[in-house]
Design a protein that fits this description.
Strand content: 15-25%
Helix content: 40-55%
Number of helices: 6
Strand order of the largest sheet: 1-4-3-2
Structural class: alpha+beta
Mean pLDDT: 80
Largest sheet: 4 strands, antiparallel
Low-confidence stretches: 1-36
Order of helices and strands: HHHEHEEHHE
Number of domains: 1
């Protein structure tokens, strides 16, 4: 084999190794992002979080659609900002852990995100802009020696949401008047279709790890 051919073969081999290492690294990062639940405590909490988040979202959406079909924008506003809180409280009592709707552009003070949630919502905005937003995110975090499963289901702005949360020229005059009177510090308008409106946040305390 000529020297030139030999050097070319070595370069190709090195390139294959580098590509292989990069592919492995990417696979590991992807697996980490998916948060494969190897801890046996996670799967039951994750399953329940998904179920409760889905049920809460579906119930609020159903009530909103019913009111909007009647042309009841004012009642739909009440459902979104007040009735939804009552429904969330019922879910919390039933589940025995914390579940709520959160948003950076909140209307109800109960929807203000904590520091962890705020960082995640800011991340969701960036991922949404890059068309990389997933349907759910979860991880285990430790707070004051207690481990929690933190689960978030991003909520995107649907067409029906723009009646109360859209651009100023999209919101009916009567609805805007009510908003200005009832929520003088309202931060929940100015959204466009498919913007991240917020998320359903679930926080589940995990049992202590068994001591071997």
């Amino acid at each position: 084999m000529r020297a030139g051919s030999f050097l070319t073969a070595i370069k190709i081999a090195v390139l294959v190794v580098i590509v292989g290492m990069y592919t492995l690294s990417a696979s590991v990062k992807q697996l980490s992002a998916q948060q494969a639940p190897e801890d046996p405590r996670i799967e039951p909490a994750l399953r329940e979080s998904r179920k409760m988040a889905g049920e809460l979202t579906d119930k609020v959406r159903k009530l909103l659609l019913e009111e909007l079909k009647k042309g009841g924008y004012v009642e739909a506003l009440r459902v979104c900002s007040e009735v939804a809180q009552d429904i969330t409280s019922q879910f919390n009592k039933r589940a025995g852990y914390n579940i709520r709707r959160i948003s950076l552009g909140y209307r109800n003070l109960k929807d203000i995100p904590d520091e962890y949630e705020r960082h995640k919502l800011e991340l969701f905005d960036r991922l949404n802009d890059e068309n990389k937003l997933a349907t759910e995110y979860f991880e285990v975090v430790k707070e004051r020696d207690v481990e929690y499963l933190r689960y978030l289901k991003p909520l995107k702005t649907a067409e029906m949401c723009t009646v109360c949360h859209g651009q100023i020229d999209e919101i009916p005059h009567r609805v805007m008047s009510i908003l200005q009177e009832a929520y003088p510090d309202d931060r929940a308008i100015g959204y466009r279709l498919d913007d991240v409106r917020g998320a359903v946040s679930v926080k589940v305390a995990l049992q202590p790890r068994p001591i071997h």
